[in-house]
Amino acid sequence: MLFEGRSSNQFPTSNLIVMPPNFAVVVCHGSYHTPEPYQPFLDALKANGIEAYCPQLPSSDLSKLDIGDVFNPNFDRNPPEGGYPQPADDTKIIQELLQRLIEGENKNVILIGHSSGGFTAALSAIPKYQAKNRARSSGGIFGVFYACGFVVPVGESVHTFFQPKDGSPPVVPPYCKFHLNGITGLASTSEGAKYFFNGLDEDKAKFYESTLTASPVFTTVLDNDAYAALPCTYLITENDLALPAAYQEGMVALQNQRPEVEIGIVRCPSGHSPHLAWTEGFVKEVLNFGKAIIG
Question: What DSSP letter does each residue of 94-161 carry, written as one string?
Fold first, then answer.
């Protein structure tokens, strides 16, 4: 389905679409993030009667990354035995929540994948939880909403998709800083206010920069085709410095070449954090999407 949206920045909450009480939104956050930058968006959803969740994912949880003191992290430590948490581990957290919401409470769920959380959302939306495969009125995932999210082809990982395939040296994004162990270790962020939070007031951008953590290189391979199985829409952030709009458009176009895939597009005048810079507009588009596919 195609869902074309508007790009105005504010929508009065009184004009928002009313969803049924069994509707819930689950946000899969991006790399280097905690749930804190998503709280204004979650609050805006809740103010409109929508259950909303954004659990901390282990791949960017400093307490799970073996960096010593989380208040004074040492990113030069050797990787732990067994490696760092991966999107496969993040998916376990999301699926534990889906198990409760869907199997336990019959919720109608929209997954939101922000940034690298797009990969986590696609990986998590397995057939078991898809509404179309469940008895009527027993809940399930009805669709996936990508917010400047990674739309990685099935059979690839984040690493293999974004890195050169000809054996040339790895490409390191400008916001990413590797440490002593290079790409086998952890990456922290550089100029996070500029790349992740542009469009916010300087003080807010700096505050949210202070909440950023670290992440390893993601090697989990996507083995679930949510793009074909579920209605999907994609929010292109037109002022994005971390994942430029042209790259976002390219990822969607790559999937939409497949006859069984039709990812819709909406756009907004935001940087990489529409949950902060375009909160009410984001809420409006998510509810438009939910109404169109759930009713």
Answer: HHHHHIIIIIIT--EEEEEEETTHHHHHHHH--GGGBGGGS-TTS-EEEEEEEES---PPTT--HHHH
What is the per-residue pLDDT across 36-51, written as a single tens digit (0 to 9) for each?
999 999 999 999 999 9
Nearest to 90 by CA among 255, 246, 222: 222
Give the number of other Cβ atoms within 10 Å of residue 194's Cβ: 15
The answer on pLDDT for 10 being more than 70 is: no
Q: Which residues pair with 215 in a beta bridge?
A: 187
* 14 burial level (CB within 10 Å; 0-12, 13-18, 19+): exposed
Q: Is the CA virtual torsion 267, 270, 274, 277 positive or negative?
A: negative
Locus of tokens 């509810």: 287
Q: Is the pLDDT of residue 98 over 90?
A: yes
How far the first Cα of the chain sits from its last, in Å, is 14
Structure token digits, residue 235: 């929010």
**d(C-alpha 197, C-alpha 31), whole Å:** 14
Share of the chain above pLDDT 70, in %: 95
